[in-house]
Design brief:
CATH topology: Rossmann fold
Structural class: alpha/beta
Number of domains: 1
Distance between the termini: 12 Å
Largest sheet: 5 strands, parallel
Strand order of the largest sheet: 2-3-1-4-7
CATH architecture: 3-Layer(aba) Sandwich
Number of helices: 9
Radius of gyration: 17 Å
Strand content: 5-15%
Oligomer: single chain
């Protein structure tokens, strides 16, 4: 199954994506994770990405699409859960073309809905382990005591930045809901404010699992 997870930053896509990957036996594709891993390994695309990032620029869609192509030809050859990608309609069309080359298509979209104020509360409480990239939350999932001193709050988790990211999301990513609906892809909207197991159970039920 090729599945797209949509939702604002902090809606829970990463958490639900990881759980779905385990339940469905398909890898989760998060482009941020792929970029960091490609840079760490020094792959050809990783080296390109690093040069762009070192210059203070955004990594191009072509580089990201190249990374996705590599995954679709390796561990995601039988299906994937796309977490936070595509981010806009242009990327969605490019992904459709890439999947089409392999005779595949996006079969379902899960839209995790959480209101802005709840997201601000979630994200302003987040803290990240800079060594592993694992994200914790002061209230819901505090970091282990032995690593807590090294954990930091990322600048993009500060309230002002979060609200700006939500504005960008509404302008660029939210239109994907209409894009997929018009393409005839089932779009399942779920309430992401509930407990993680409840959200996961509803998603699996909507997917017939």
């Amino acid at each position: 199954m090729d599945l797209v997870l949509l939702g604002a930053p902090g809606a829970g896509k990463g958490t639900q994506g990881a759980l779905l990957a385990e339940a469905l036996g398909a890898p989760k594709i998060a482009t941020g994770d792929m970029l960091r891993e490609a840079v760490r390994q020094g792959t050809p695309l990783g080296l390109q990405a690093r040069a762009v990032m070192d210059a203070g620029q955004l990594v191009s869609d072509d580089i990201v699409l190249g990374l996705v192509r590599e995954r679709l030809q390796s561990d995601a050859a039988a299906g994937a859960i796309f977490d936070g990608y595509p981010r806009n309609v242009a990327q969605a069309r490019a992904l459709d073309g890439l999947l089409g080359e392999a005779g595949r298509r996006i079969e379902s979209v899960v839209y995790i809905d959480v209101d802005d104020d709840a997201i601000v509360r979630r994200m302003s409480g987040r803290t990240t382990d800079p060594e592993t990239g694992i994200v914790y939350h002061h209230e819901h999932n505090p970091p282990p005591a032995e690593i807590a001193p090294r954990c930091i709050q990322r600048a993009d988790d500060e309230e002002r930045t979060v609200r700006h990211r939500l504005e960008v999301y509404r302008e660029s990513t939210a239109p994907l809901v209409d894009y997929y609906r018009q393409a005839g892809v089932p779009v399942h909207k779920v309430d992401g404010t509930r407990a993680i197991p409840e959200v996961q159970a509803e998603i699996l039920g909507l997917l017939g699992r």
